[in-house]
Amino acid sequence: MDRRTFGLAAASSVALAGCARTESKFKTYRGPEVTSIVVNKGARKMYLLNNETVLREYEVDLGFAPEGPKRIEGDGKTPEGTYLIDRRNPNSSFHLSVGISYPNSADVAFARSIGKKPGGEIFIHGEPNDPKDRKRADRVKDWTAGCIAVKNHEIEDIYAMVNNGTLITLRA
To answer: Could you tell me the strand order of the sheet in which 123-125 lies?
Structure first.
């Protein structure tokens, strides 16, 4: 093979490699609307619902001290109650994340009544992006600071399926 033919072959290979499809973490969803989310903390399960029909079910990890409702910043608890999905973060420290409207006015009032802050930044999210944090998450059950964690491929589905404004109920 002469140098010119080799060069053209090499250039073609590089060009084709550039066309190779890479998987995006941003999926599309065209199924039934997710009308609500229910998290059963005791069973470590989360359900995406269309009215009364379960569309998806996930095993979850919770805050490092999951029993009982979240009351104050740093307590390691996952909230209990009814909130809304109110934001999403495609550039999270975790694979993707979907925000929960904790704290509500009752959460703020309770924390203030005992001279504390209620905390915040509660999300449904994937696995940590940082390799060291990811190793810890793989070893430890209930490793978050109060969030709800799922596997990366699962948060990709959730991110696509759940709209801002969706009701989320977190039960003991």
So the answer is: 53-59, 45-50, 36-40, 167-171, 81-89, 97-100, 123-125, 148-149
